[in-house]
Design brief:
The protein has 4 helices and 13 strands. With about 325 residues, the chain is of the alpha/beta class. Helix 1 packs across helix 2. The protein is globular.
Length: about 325
């Protein structure tokens, strides 16, 4: 522990702290769904950790670092505030397990300008641990994922997703209501599938924000037994996009009749002649194509490439700052 940062005050109770796919926000934040506050999405691989954060006073931020055996995070961060100011520094985050199972982090930070302090952030309610989410929890989940996608896609990317969503509804609704519409996307753990899925998830969330309801996003995999790397990619992307927690998302394996049942629109695949689903290409116009946003989404959807000699990608670390900390 670093005594100069006062870390020993909050000794972690144990080493069983998993950060991959976990979202954090300031402990004193307004917990109302959609309330403006900084939200951070953490990832980890082995002892490496990284995070992206934004919202509230923070336009965008990054944190990279490592985890100790007891779960303590050593990291470095940088961030840009909405007023144009910037901040950078180092931190030591000490975890604590709350009575309800969530993680609280005591972030002992020191900025490059010499200032220092302690921020306290908490894990956002872990979806799926206590049964179906309430409508307020679903709203918060969607808002959190939307903010992350907005940070990585930028205004132009979100507008492209909105235009594409309008085109999708024009072609796919055909007299149906939004809750009756099911859109299928294939994702087998490859790079193209990850980016396409993220873009379509943005379309789904933009639709929900505009109309108050949205279509069902069905994600199918074409390999019943994917490789370790592909399975890891699919799991990571599902966590980042909140697919398992959102009742309007259906991550499914290719087996079983349910995959193709009641599908109205197929994205990124052709349909059989005479088949009922509408074949929809998000690359029909370059302004809609997710390819243009791959470099931006790459920092959010980190995964290993399916290559024989590919080394595991370096992992990054996380933290939050709502403007007064660090």
């Amino acid at each position: 522990m670093r005594s100069d940062l006062g870390v020993s005050e909050h000794e972690p109770a144990g080493a069983d702290f998993g950060y991959d796919g976990v979202r954090f926000r300031p402990a004193d934040a307004d917990h109302a769904p959609g309330a403006p506050t900084t939200v951070g999405l953490y990832h980890s691989r082995g002892g490496e950790l990284w995070a992206e954060f934004g919202g509230g006073k923070v336009l965008t931020g990054r944190l990279v670092g490592t985890t100790r055996p007891d779960g303590t995070i050593d990291g470095a961060y940088c961030q840009v505030f909405r007023d144009g100011q910037t901040a950078a520094g180092t931190l030591v985050s000490v975890p604590e397990r709350l009575p309800d199972g969530r993680i609280r982090l005591y972030e002992h930070w020191r900025r490059a300008d010499g200032s220092s302090g302690v921020s306290v952030i908490e894990q956002i309610d872990a979806p799926g641990d206590g049964g179906p989410l309430s409508s307020a929890q679903v709203e918060y989940l969607r808002d959190t994922v939307y903010r992350q996608l907005q940070t990585h896609l930028g205004t132009a990317g979100v507008l492209a997703a909105a235009r594409c969503a309008v085109r999708l509804l024009d072609q796919g609704l055909a007299g149906r209501t939004l809750p009756e519409l099911t859109v299928l996307v294939a994702h087998d753990g490859d790079e193209a599938g990850a980016y396409t899925l993220a873009f379509v998830r943005a379309m789904q969330l933009v639709t929900a924000r505009v109309h108050g309801e949205t279509f069902t996003l069905r994600v199918v995999t074409g390999d019943a037994e994917p490789s370790r790397i592909a399975a890891g990619t699919m799991d990571r992307v599902s966590h980042v996009l909140g697919l398992h927690e959102d009742p309007r998302c259906e991550p499914l394996a290719v087996q079983g009749d349910r995959v193709g049942r009641d599908v109205d629109v197929v994205i990124g695949a052709s349909t059989k002649a005479g088949g009922r689903p509408v074949s929809f290409s998000i690359g029909a116009d370059t302004s809609y194509a997710p390819d243009a946003h791959r470099s931006l989404l790459a920092d959010l959807l980190k995964f290993e490439f399916e290559e024989p000699h590919a080394a595991p990608a370096a992992a990054p670390a996380g933290g939050l700052d709502d403007g007064e900390d660090r």
